[in-house]
Amino acid sequence: MCGLFIVRDPRDAFLSHYHLYNRTHLPRTQMQHFEQFFCGKGMGQPNFRLGWGNYVGLMLGLVAESPNVVLVRFEDMKLRTVSCLQAALGKIYMFPSRHRLVRVVIAYGRTRCDPSNMPVCDEFGKAGEWKIELEADVCEALVSYCGDVMSELGYD
Asked: Which of 10, 9, 49 is nearest to 142 (CA)?
C-alpha cells in the first residue's frame, strides 16, 4: 500500500469543521461541537466515530509500519506544496520533474474534494486561525484530549 496522510493542527481542523457544520446545520457552541466532533459522539463520518485523537493515533501507527505511507503536515503542504509532494512521491520511487508537479498543483490546487455545492472559499481552512477564534475552554479541552498526538506532530 502507498499513500499520503495529511494531518492538520487539531485546533484548526476543529475550527474549520465547526464553521462548516454551523453553516449547514443548526448552530451549536464550540464546546457542544467539540464533544460531538472530536470525541466521536454522533458524527456521520466513520473515521471520526473514533474521535480525532484516536483516529490520528491509528494513522500514525500505520505510517510507522509502512514505508510507503508518508505523513505530511497540512501547514507544511500549504507552504511548500511541491517540495512535500516530491518527498512523498520519492518514498514510493516516483520522481516527476518539479515543472510537472508545479503544473499539477496549479491545475488542481483549488479543486474541492467533497461533493457539496458550497463555493470554494478561504473562510474555512486558514492555518493558525484557532489563535483568534477558538474559545479558551475549548482549546484547553482539545489539548487535554489529544495533547500527546499534538506533541508527536509538533503542534505544541
From this structure: 10
Q: Is 33 exposed, middle or buried (0-12, 13-18, 19+ CB in 10 A)?
A: buried
Check residue 25 and give left, alpha or beta (phi > 0: left; psi -120 to 50: alpha): beta
Identity of the residue numbered 61: G
Handedness of CA 124, 127, 132, 137 (dihedral sign): positive
What residue has cell string 516516483? 94
In this structure, are residues 10 and 38 in contact, taking their beta carbons and an 8 Å threshold? yes
Q: Interior CA angle at 152 toward 150 and 71, to 5°?
A: 95
Q: Are 146 and 53 in contact (CB under 8 A)?
A: yes
What residue ranges define each of the domains in the chain, with the CATH number in brackets? 3-153 (3.40.50.300)
Residue-wise pLDDT tens digits, 43-96: 545 555 667 777 888 888 888 888 878 888 888 888 888 888 888 888 777 788
C-alpha cell at 98: 518539479
Containing 13, the helix (H) or strand (E) segment is helix 10-24
